[in-house]
Specification:
The complex is a heterodimer. Chain A is α/β, with parallel strands linked by helices. Chain A contains nine helices and 19 strands. In chain B, β1 and β2 form a beta hairpin. Chain B is globular, with a radius of gyration of 14 Å. Classes of the chains: A alpha/beta, B mainly beta. The structure holds flavin-adenine dinucleotide (FAD) and FE2/S2 (inorganic) cluster. The site of flavin-adenine dinucleotide has 37 residues of chain A, from α1, β4, α4 and α7.
Chain lengths: ~375, ~100
């Protein structure tokens, strides 16, 4: 049996939750599918206070922002949330399939908003498959969701915000961070986060990388080495660092498989960290009625993911005729908010990426 | 090892249960995944790669990468990083690709 759905939201992170809330507030009936046991996305693991502006709850801890968004959505009678529900397939005839409690559900949505977030990138070096080499997200899940100490001695690769924040979270959980290693000549993340680590005595080595890992059955240590200005390993600089966990925080890439499956026009945009669907001013992809919001359309932040979700939600509701005038005004307001969020010097990369997307779209339309 | 004290978080672990890992009895809690319980018990090696038999552990812990496939209660290819623990579960290293069971 195929179930008819008005607005299907795939993914219950900040983007998906805000999309569901916006579409429902206009009167649309929303079904949200989240593959995890609880909605919240990345927010459920973030114990630190967020950056961004007040409108997007900056200054609050990620976990509490997540709770607020979830509470708002669960209060709505016209939103149904399915957890432990992984969306598997998007078919040519518009049918979407979902795995829920070992059952295969078939949906036929009028509008679909993909908000599946991101996946972690990997790094190539000998023995990078040893147990004990984890993505930073895995380490966060173990310690902040399960309350399990991921390790005793950790080496962190990557000094962007994620690497710095997760290192600090490890210290809070009572784990020793032996070193943070960053290939670039400079720390990529905010200096406030780096300063907290330095005060705790954690060395941050810029211009260094992992040459190889070693261990018998599990990770026992890594060999680090210095990089020259052409990013080549400098012989003779090898440093043996015993550790039981190597945590990779080398960036995220959009989790855009469902967009590929649906046949969206996709482009590789370096500034957005991978292949992204080409979207219009309403975040609609090249497939009619299919929208993409949040990290899946380019790696950015929770703040912009929330506003993108809201934009897609109102745009979808307006196109279904729900409270059309207000929905369009709300979509305009969200667009203005996104411009504002991306206006500073930190938004330069995103602006460049989005400009490329707009150009690809113009070329495709012509 | 479990985190007992945390400056920000409190953990509601649920009920204490026992399960087996390759025949060995292990304790865990109902609110955690099989992988988290194994990890807390110091077990990080969950299986071996099919061709070169290299040890395999967790990588993503969110069900994305399939590095953690194990056989659970006789069913192969279970992602133990996203499967909640239940009392009496039989968790085993998986041999080969496993056979898909068809419901009658
Ligand atoms: C350590 C760390 C610190 C951060 N700090 C900040 C900060 O201080 N400020 C800030 O603004 N941002 C921060 N961010 C970034 C922010 O968390 C992300 O940009 C944001 O969560 C993206 O939201 P999203 O909704 O697009 O994706 P996500 O939060 O990743 O949510 C996607 C959801 O979709 C679900 N999903 C995926 N595939 C499927 C499927 N097939 N079927 C069903 N469900 C699916 C996933 O389970 C997940 O719940 C941080 C990120 C990390 C990792
Ligand atoms: S560790 Fe990646 S799927 Fe389980």
């Amino acid at each position: 049996m195929i179930r008819d759905v008005e607005v299907l939201v795939i993914g219950g992170g900040p983007a998906g939750l805000c999309a569901a809330e916006a579409a429902a507030s206009a009167g649309a009936h929303v079904l949200l599918c989240e593959r995890d046991g609880v909605p919240g996305g990345q927010l459920v693991k973030q114990t630190h206070k967020f950056f961004g502006s007040e409108r997007q709850y900056a200054g609050e801890r990620g976990i509490f922002i997540g709770k607020k968004l979830i509470d708002a959505v669960t209060r709505r009678e016209n939103v149904e949330i399915l957890t432990d529900a992984t969306v598997l397939g998007m078919y040519e005839d518009g049918v979407v399939t979902v795995l829920k409690d070992d059952k295969h559900l078939k949906l036929r949505p009028k509008k679909t908003i993909i908000a599946t977030g991101a996946a972690e990138k990997f790094l190539t070096f000998p023995n990078n498959d040893l147990p004990g080499i984890y993505g930073a997200g895995a380490v966060q899940t173990l310690m902040n969701v399960a309350g399990v100490k991921p390790a005793e001695r950790v080496v962190m690769v990557g000094a962007g915000n994620i690497g710095l924040i997760v290192s600090y979270q490890l210290l809070q959980a009572g784990v020793r961070v032996v070193s943070v290693v960053e290939a670039a000549p400079r720390i990529g993340g905010f200096l406030v986060h780096a300063a907290k680590l330095r005060r705790a005595g954690v060395p941050i080595r810029t211009g260094w990388t992992v040459k190889e890992a070693y261990g018998n059955g599990k990770l026992e240590g890594v060999v680090l080495c210095e990089l020259d200005e052409k990013w080549q390993q400098v012989p003779g600089t090898e440093l043996d660092v015993p550790c039981d966990t190597l945590c990779l925080a080398v960036g995220l890439t959009p989790l855009s498989e469902l967009c590929w499956q649906a046949g969206c026009h996709m482009e590789f945009i370096r500034e957005l960290s991978g292949h992204v669907p080409v979207t219009d001013e309403n975040l609609m992809t090249s497939v009619e009625g299919l929208y993409a919001a949040g990290d899946v359309s380019g790696i950015e932040e929770a703040s912009s993911a929330m506003v993108e979700g809201r934009l897609a939600g109102y745009a979808a509701a307006a196109s279904l005729g729900y409270d059309a005038e207000r929905s369009r005004a709300e979509a305009d307001a969200a667009r203005a908010e996104l411009r504002e969020l991306r206006s500073g010097p930190l938004g330069g990369k995103i602006r460049a990426g989005l400009e490329k997307v707009a150009e690809k779209r113009r070329n495709a339309v012509c | 090892m479990r985190i007992e004290q945390h400056p920000i978080l409190q953990f509601d672990r649920g009920e204490k249960v026992t399960f087996t890992f390759n025949g060995q009895t292990v304790e865990g809690y109902t609110s955690e995944t099989i992988a988290a319980a194994l990890h807390a018990a110091g077990i990080r090696e969950l299986g071996h790669s099919q061709n070169l038999h290299r040890p395999r552990g967790l990588f993503c812990a969110i069900g994305n990468c399939s590095s953690c496939f194990m056989t659970v209660d006789g069913e192969p290819n279970v992602r133990v990083c996203v499967t909640k623990l239940r009392d009496g579960m039989v968790v085993e290293e998986q041999e080969g690709k496993g056979v898909v069971r068809h419901d009658p």
